[in-house]
Amino acid sequence: MSERKVMTVLNGQTVTPPPIWLMRQAGRYLPEYRETRKSAGSFLDLCYNPELATEVTLQPIRRFGLDAAILFSDILVIPDALHRNVSFSEGKGPAMDPINVSGIEKLDGANVMAHLSPVFETVSRLRTSLPDETTLLGFCGAPWTVATYMIAGHGTPDQAPARLFGYQEPAAMEKLLAFLAEVSADYLVAQIDAGADAVQIFDSWAGVLGEKEFEDYAIKPVARIIASVHARRPSAKIIAFAKGAGYLLKDYRRKTGADAIGLDWSVPLGFARDLQKEGPVQGNLDPMLMVAGGKALQDGIDAVLQALGQGPLIFNLGHGITPQADPENVTRLVQRVRGGAGA
User: Which of 149, 187, 217, 252 is catalytic?
Assistant: First the structure.
């Protein structure tokens, strides 16, 4: 079997040049994705169509030769499987029936995995379709981030509805996060069993939390997921990404048990280097540089490589690539990280 470089890094080794993948690498910045999307129906239809989800996952691998493919899906398939009436509308984002204390009491995960069976079929198809050297990543949303959407019924700038709910209904919030952690662990184990080499937990809204709430809402539920996955699949590798957590990342790896931590672009590279002393890191180029291109992109790539390239690093963006990004800038990024003169 060819070396899967992302897995080598996740095992704690340094690879030079570092392997590369990009969050949201399959998406609206690619013309081939937009063409496939037209034939899918709704966004959720695309997530649940193994043939089309496999196709869009493979598109950036074919175009750029990235070192990992990440399953095309969405973090909100979990609430969708819980019958929260999830929908996506262009320009407005996701919406669902907001949950209350009574709704939390009634949550039942009995049929979640059956509902998500098309996702597992996609994972299986991908592992047989990808080049042997390409790592396949599965993922889920972290309980806190998923809960923010479930409580508000939609995205909000600072997740005030979920934060307020946590203060007013602490027992219900704890129950919701624990429930989501249990279901998410089952979901990740099923992805691993279907062929995923490693998985990532996305906590996109960790950055709105205070210190105590970060411990209770971001660390404890993710630690619960990771402990459950590792208990059942001891060799599983798990990346935890707590966007916006800043200094609170200091103990995040140790407290969650994550094998690697993702870093957003606001994490200072000196601090990132300290975090890397404890194990692999992933990140952390500003996604806006994929829009800007030119010298700004070149300098940003070089800064990450200079700071983190001598240790276990998976080169990535500090969050998802945006629809405005120029695909040619991805080509330039790959060439520069691998030692060419493309940026």
Answer: 149
User: Which of the residues 74, 232, 273, 338 is marked catalytic?
Assistant: 74
**252: its two tokens:** 């995040």
Beta bridge partners of 237: 198
Phi, psi (degrees; rounded to nearest 5) at 266:
-85, -10
Residue 37: its pLDDT value, please?
Answer: 93
Mean pLDDT for back-to-back runs of 10 residues, the chain (343 residues): 93 98 97 94 95 98 98 98 93 92 97 98 98 98 98 95 98 98 98 98 98 98 98 98 98 98 98 98 98 98 98 98 98 94 51
Query: Of 264, 174, 260, nearest to 213 (Cα)?
Result: 174
What SS3 class is residue 248?
helix
Active site annotation includes 28: yes
Please tell me the predicted confidence (pLDDT) of residue 343: 52
Residue 260, token pair as written in the block: 């690697």
Residue type, 105: E
Q: Cα(92)–Cα(217) distance, rounded to whole angstroms?
A: 26
Catalytic residue among 33, 34, 37, 45: 37
The gap between the terminal CA atoms of the chain, to the nearest Å, is 32
Q: Are the C-beta atoms of 332 and 342 separated by less than 8 Å?
A: yes
Catalytic residue status for 254: no
Interatomic CA distance for residues 168 and 238, integer angstroms: 33
CA-based torsion, 256, 260, 264, 265: positive or negative? positive
- Choose the catalytic residue: 24, 84, 125, 163: 24
Catalytic annotation on 74? yes
- Give the integer Cα–Cα distance in Å for 43 and 86: 11
Check if 24 is active-site. yes
pTM of this structure: 0.97
pLDDT value of residue 341: 52
Tell me if 25 sits within 8 A of 60, measured CB to CB: yes
Closest CA relative to residue 229, chosen from 264, 183, 260, 177: 183
